[in-house]
Amino acid sequence: xxxxxxxxxxxxxxxxxxxxxxxxxxxxxxxxxxxxxxxxxxxxxxxxxxxxxxxxxxxxxxxxxxxxxxxxxxxxxxxx
Length: 80
Known about the structure:
By secondary structure, the chain is an all-alpha fold. Helices cover 44% and strands 0% of the residues.
């Protein structure tokens, strides 16, 4: 609403000036392309389990960041 630009996203998840929702300016594809490369490198170079687990955690974090909880696609069969 107020178009305030943040270097770091406020922990509250809302604008500190107007209280409105934040608009992410990072596109999902620009982050996920590096995630795919990192997953490929862990397999290619047989990295330790710790590194693989960390990448999986990052992947889940990214998915939760770009998933809108308010908008869910439901099918008619979900109700029966």
